[in-house]
Amino acid sequence: MKKLVLAVAALGLISLTSCKKDYTCTCKASGKTDVVIPIAKAKKDDATKVCDAAKTTYSAAGYSCSL
User: Fold this and answer.
1) Which range marks the domain in which residue 49 is found?
2) Does residue 56 belong to any structural domain of this protein?
3) pTM exceeds 0.85
4) More confident of the two residues 32 and 1
């Protein structure tokens, strides 16, 4: 019974944790100042979308962006 209670408690704690993290999208171009875009508390897919949007915006100026 004690193991069951511990297992349920552990499962409850796992379900409460979030997989959201802080990410940084960095856009670089030779001879230019780097553009750093902080992305706070986001899922990786969402952070990738934000960085892809920055890539679209800054690519015309010769920047290459990555997460």
Assistant:
1) 19-66
2) yes
3) no
4) 32
